[in-house]
Amino acid sequence: MATLQKIRSKGPLLLIVIGLAMLAFILGDAWKIIRPNQGVQYVGSIAGQKISAMDFQDELENYTEVVKFGMGTNDLTEEMNNSLKDEVWSSMVRNTIINNEAEKLGLTVTDAEVRAVIEEGTDPNLQNTPFSDAQGNFDADNLKSFIAGYESLDRESVPAEQMRYYDSMYKFWLFIEKEIKSSLLYQKYSALVGSAAVANPVSIKDSYESRIKRADVLMASLSFSSLADADVTVSAQDLKNVYAENKESLYNYAETRDIYYIDTEILPSQADRDALLQEMVELTEQLQETDEDYASFLRRAQSRQTYSEVARSLGYLPLAVAENLDSVNEAGIFGPVYDEYTDSYTSFKLIGKEQGYDSIQYSIIQVVAENEQESDRLADSIYTAVKGGADFAEIAQVYGQSGIEQWITSAQYEPAAINGDNAKYLNAINGMKKGEVANVKISQGNLIIKVTDVRNIVDKYNVAAIQRPVEFSEETSNKAYTDLSLFVAQNATLDSLKANAEDSNYRLLFYPAFSSSSNNVAGVAKSHEALRWAFDAKEGEVSRIYEVGAANDHLLVVAVSKINPAGYTSIENAQTALASKVINSKKAQLLLDKLAGVKSIDEAKSIEGIRIDTVQFCNFTNDAYIASTMTNEPSLGPSVINLAQNVLSAPVVGENCVFVAEKITDDSYSAAIDETAEKERLETIAGGRLAQSILQELYMQAKVEDTRYRIF
After folding, report:
1. What pLDDT was estimated at residue 19?
2. What is the DSSP letter of 138?
3. pLDDT beyond 80 at 387
């Protein structure tokens, strides 16, 4: 029960977990309401095994709850939610494949093995859990205490909110335990297939020298970009040849679509800007007349800025306020002023200016008794004792509190709007002197506070600021929709869109090989419905208008130009990438001719367009960073590392250039080699690569079908 008591003390965490539990409940019921009596729906298949939408939903909810729990938030962005969907799907694919193979091989993970990992406490899955010691490290005893306490709880006697918290904590642990088991099975499988990679003495020596052996290199290079694309020609046969050479890298595991789309952002009109400015003028006049309850006034004014009863330092005020403070006296008014950076208008009232501390060290005792009178009496007693010289920490311990000294800085609270009891407490410590003791009454008791140290007295400002962004009106939105509707009605085919979009001031954009796993169309928020349409449409079809965007501030029209089935990309679809390879290959031949016969770096300096770089610590294994082009060159090390010092290499075709190079320092590496350690390192790397290659092949054989877009 000690762990339960420790967890119970974490008030903010309690609220978070309760929220997560409620979220899971709501989402679960929502699923039943949205899709009643529709039979089993599927989101794909893996190795012939269909994955139901309900199973995917359950996994997604569990993982989302864990992520939110770890982040300490109930709010995730659309991008983060999409990322979680992809992570859950990838995990389901991998686990299904591994489980199938493990069953064939007789690989299992026992409960004893999982317990051993938990006892050791170093598994990455165990980090950042609530089951930790004072140093933040995982504590198995802490976990055991929680589980024992949870399983023996009298659920009828525990308050409902606390019970939901304990249930959520337990579900969180079950998820972690499941992840540990999956990780162990994957490790066993990888170790088994990876054991086929065995290092021999030659490979051990070669591995060691290629990794350790290094030298500084002088390099003279001619970039492919130094020649214009027009300097070379690309024939149909060239494309066929490079397609044959690169065909395996052009395999698509899933169907894609080539689409065209119009993405129109709805922007405020001049009338919208004028209307907001007039409203801000009126609000500014009202703000000048207001002398209390600024928080309510700013809410009614729909201000982006909320009022804080705690004065703020200059750096935590809106820029439009901070830049104009010198223009007003105390109780003065300023604005409205336009901020181009935030596209908003701001007005503010300087209510007061004071001096406070940037950092405060203090101790605190919370006093809460059976009733207000008893709290006051007890607080007065403690206050008198501390004022009389009693040890603050010793008195705090009598009331079950630590009373330890702690620092708080402006950066920890000034960015937020602080009101109520929190404002009373912060204003109190900001107004106290070093060594002073105060008895601060709050709504639920009293706070006995002692300030033990202060740093940096700074100016702070009590400001009420109205900030309103310029937004489009309903009239502006309707006009944009009507205009686009008229255009689409008059251009109902893809060919017509292509022919007339530019003349009508619409940009028709092309998106080749568009995938359903993209989660939205061209990065436009809340456009999943348009994505779903694109993968249900036929070639040549044009969609309706979708109202999308994070603030419903975009209008989207999509047209499908081509359906690309799973398999090898056609030479036509890969033409752009293939042409680039051909162009670089032909440029390389021209640049090789320029470097032919060069005997030294000094001689190369006379060639037009040459770049000279000194590359330090160049070796066989790692890519070399070329400062002059800000690119990596994997070919440099292997080209020169085994040459004698000051011997120029032959011209080499690299990733982005053609170059010659020479070592300008001796090889620097230790002659001693720990063959056992090097053998283990080499086999671990080779075994891991082998396991990944086998898993890639298993993935291809599994014929994974991902149709999540139809439902999620």
Report:
1. 34
2. B
3. yes
How far is Cα 652 from Cα 221, in angstroms, rounded to an integer?
9
- Measured between its terminal Cα atoms, the distance across the chain in Å is 41
How many Å apart are CA 548 and CA 525, to the nearest integer? Answer: 6
The pLDDT of residue 14: 28
Query: Position 200: which residue type?
Result: N
At residue 37, the pLDDT reads 41
User: Can you tell me the distance from the alpha carbon of 147 to that of 401, in angstroms, rounded to the nearest whole number?
Assistant: 26
- Closest by CA to 361, choosing from 429, 443, 285, 437, is 429
Per the document, the length of the chain is 712
Alpha-carbon distances of 586 from 218, 332, 573, rounded to whole Å: 25, 71, 21
Q: What is the pLDDT of residue 85?
A: 92
* Number of CB atoms found within 10 A of residue 270's CB: 8
Residue scoring higher pLDDT (357 or 26)? 357
How many CB atoms lie under 10 A from the CB of residue 218?
20
How many Cβ atoms are within 10 Å of 654's Cβ, its own excluded? 23
The letter for the amino acid at 356 is G
Q: Phi first, then psi: give them for residue 599, nearest 5 degrees.
A: -100, -15
H/E/C letters for each residue in 75-124? Answer: CCCHHHHHHHHHHHHHHHHHHHHHHHHHHHHCCCCCHHHHHHHHHHCCCH
Structural contact between residues 220 and 610, judged by C-beta atoms closer than 8 angstroms:
yes
What share of the chain in percent tops pLDDT 70? Answer: 93
**DSSP type of residue 524:** B
The token pair that represents 345 in the structure block:
């208008």
Q: Rounded CA gap, 390 and 437, in Å?
A: 12
Calpha distance 667→641 (Å, rounded): 8
- CB count, 10 Å around CB of 492? 11
The reply to whether omega before 336 is within 30° of 0 (cis) is yes
Angle at 265 between CA 261 and CA 270, to 5 degrees: 150
CA distance 310 to 568: 64
Where residue 129 falls among pLDDT bands split at 50, 70, 90?
Answer: confident
Q: Span 472-492, mean pLDDT?
A: 96
pLDDT at 671: 67
How high does pLDDT run on average in the chain? 88
Task: Give percent of the chain with pLDDT exceeding 90.
Answer: 60
What is the residue-wise DSSP string for 386-422? HHTT--HHHHHHHTT-----EEEEHHHHTTS---HHH
How far is C-alpha 477 from the geometric centre of its chain's CA atoms?
Answer: 32
* Structural tokens at position 138: 């995982």
Does the structure show a pLDDT above 60 at 4?
Answer: no
Helices (H), 557-651: 575-595, 601-604, 636-640
Classified as helix, coil or strand, 372 is helix
CA distances from residue 157 to 17, 19, 163, 370, 393 in whole angstroms, order as listed: 20, 21, 9, 21, 34
| Confidence at residue 507, expressed as pLDDT on a 0 to 100 scale | 96
Q: Any residues with CB less than 8 A from the CB of 413 and at least 6 apart, and which?
A: 310, 422, 426
Please tell me the pTM assigned to this model: 0.71
Q: Which residues pair with 351 in a beta bridge?
A: none
Residue 466: beta bridge partners?
A: 347
